[in-house]
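Section handout 9: paired folding examples.
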Amino acid sequence: MAGIYLDRARELRSLIDENATKSEGLPIPPETVNALVDAELHKVMVPAAVGGLEIPVNDCIDIWSEISRADGSVGWCLMASCAATAYFAAWCPDEHVNRMFADGVPLSAGQFAPNGTATPDGDGFRIKGRYSFGSGINHAQWAGAGVLTVEPEGVDPRYLFAIYPVEKARITGNWEVMGLQATASYDYTLEDVFVPATATFDMFNLTVHRGGPLYKLGVMPLTAAGHAGFAIGVVRRGLDELYSVARSKQRMGDATMLAQNERFVHEIGELESRFRAARGWLHETFATAERTVGDTGEVDPMDVILTRQATVFVTQEGADILRRAYLLAGTDALRSGGLQRAFRDIHAGTQHIFAGTGPALELGRALLDTAPDNPLDAP
């Protein structure tokens, strides 16, 4: 089944790229958003019980990669919506799910860093806070927020994810950026917004109400998968743009095309190798994590660390690859086009916490803590 949706993603690449070229610097146009919804690509990670597709995580990554290859901003908003919608479909009780999915699988957006507070009020919470990076919030139906509960003195607050109809958020703009421009990742404010308790879940105490073992992995791996798909697609696009330049570019003073320069050809062979190695390890880590939780019903903490670090690695390695590609392309990379856009978008992606240093530190500590005294006794 997943192959059908991968084919649909590939069929949309030309449309998405054409729209991105025509609307440079503007939010994703409605024609692109509608095409994604018509192709049902916003459903790929969402549980089947609410009308989603619930396909394996590596297939989700491949689909997000294909869309990101066409335009990183579109891939970014798509993966963010898929993940957020999946969260609340899997981890909220029926009362909320019946409301959120009454008209089918919606588009979602929002920032889930704990930048707000949730004060108990009857059967819900009064939420207030200021948020940034609401990618896709201008075309979403639902928006989310991370909040810390207001508790009596001496009681630790809970870290909740909450979601509400997007019109309850006051969008304040502030998205003049170098990369991922079309995501329209606007700031937004919540001012005393009531959210039923059923439209929240505890980040550290999840209950899987619907969907298969995949949803036991939790917020971190499922979010990482989206960022991985984005990075893979953007880097793939940048490399392909470089190869196109090489076949047609002859630098001043050179007697041959770039594609006939052995030093250049050797370097692109190395760049391609680095990209494929990072992508391969990424897919391996997610396949292992999904297989383990499916076979045992339990999440291996090392799988959580590895999926996150593989995502960081493919993003940061991808940025380094595209920095080199930018230089190899010469003045062609200065001009508007696929390579320049890929270069800008991957560097915007490196600024996200899911491309940060934390997972490498966690992995290093875990490896040292579990290393045997005799190296030959390692698994």
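Moving on to protein 2 of 2.
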Amino acid sequence: MPHAPPLGPLLRQFAAGSALACEPVDQGLLNRGYRLRTTLGRYFLKHHFDPETADPAAIARRHRATQRLADLGVPVAPALAGRDGRTVAVVGGHAYALHPWIEGRHRHGGQLGTGQCGRLGALLGRVHAGLEHVMQPAYRRARAEPAESADPADTFSLIDELLARVRRHHPADAFDELARHRLLERRALLERHADRRPPRGASVGWVHGDFHPFNLLYRGDAPAAIVDWDRLGLRPRAEEAVRAAAIFFVQPAGTLDLPKVRAYARAYRRAAGATPSQLAAAVHRVWWERLNDFWMLRWHYERGDTRADLQFPAASALAVWWTREYDAVCGAFAD
């Protein structure tokens, strides 16, 4: 097994029995996960590999937050404590955590009925409201300034750099052709809409940071666990709600299922105590973010990492459609 975890020391530290089977879990772009079966049960073993989120003290703080959310009834899978009472084990300079195995499956928005979309929005609203409660002492100690929105001048430079990388790639393939088309198209859109750059973001609150279908497990029709809290942090909450909807409800042609978005957003606003104007402002900022964001192309051409390539056609088309249907999208979130 590539990157096999040190099961002996880990299982001894967590008092989790002897290993019977250990299989890598495919989902996940930044960290490594394993389905683990031992003489004492089934677990999810997480190797915190991404340098940005792998600090053991920070992982432990996230574990404490998710345990508090679990105490409030939010569906999560809290980390298990080892013999020493700690939830993070450091072996060979690498950080690991052990979680109970949650049986379930991932579901995207196309697999959810309208009522389930409402329950999804209410769940994220509960997460935001719960984090505001359990993280309040930390919030007073660590306030974050709202971020500046993307500067189109920087984006124009990035587009030129990416176009040069596309031209240098030989032989050109279908991905190169689509990338070139979208880059030129996006440059034209930004030239037309550069005067719509939003001001500095709204006030921040605690958010999951990466709420999307691969980080939510369903058992039947009900959410069983929200997983992967590595991006827990202080950011504008309404923007996370919009960003999550743009992932859950994007369709293959690069459009959003607006009736489902409306059901989701109404339930989110009720659960989180958010106002229509806050959601409308978040729609504008996330739309602008999408216009200026090329992370999938940067992974492909700068890092040679193609894991996000399959997402690129729909994601790149969404920015174009969203610009054309801006008022309808805003209405779905704010009505």
